[in-house]
């Protein structure tokens, strides 16, 4: 896989993955195409706001984690990333893994957000799918050729949130599942060790 493509995927994963911490629950309303489009546009606006804040990197990473939880369905993403081991994990382990996962994703991708300065994301199309909406967009970064990013948006959590992304056809959540699975294998399947290490990684 070409390094420039990897870099673009890593960056955009930041731009979306770094965005999901918690807001107060809203009344359940059926997801609409407009709502799904607005979610993607809001993600971009919030990233730009944090970048323009002039805060330290540590402070911006905390803000990115809050955004990650606000806009992404973190529990669903974390469970998928853990794979089959999520079924045997205790409730406490899943809670701790989810917390570690959101911090890991925010740190891993948040440090690349400065590449978004001057960037542009244009929503090109939206279509209904079984689990919500598929929002296709075109991303233009300075010094880089435009590339396609697809957001999958659902309201299963009770709020409109994205639960996966495809960057030039590459499934971001599947990529993280592969990486986290390898990390767990290196720890001989010890989930508690993975949680402890994931809390510091990224």
UniProtKB/TrEMBL annotation:
Domain of life: Bacteria
Pfam families attached to this UniProt entry: MlaC
Keyword Transmembrane: no
The protein's name: Toluene tolerance, Ttg2
Signal peptide: 1-30
Keywords: Signal
Statement: the UniProt record of this protein carries the keyword Cell membrane: no
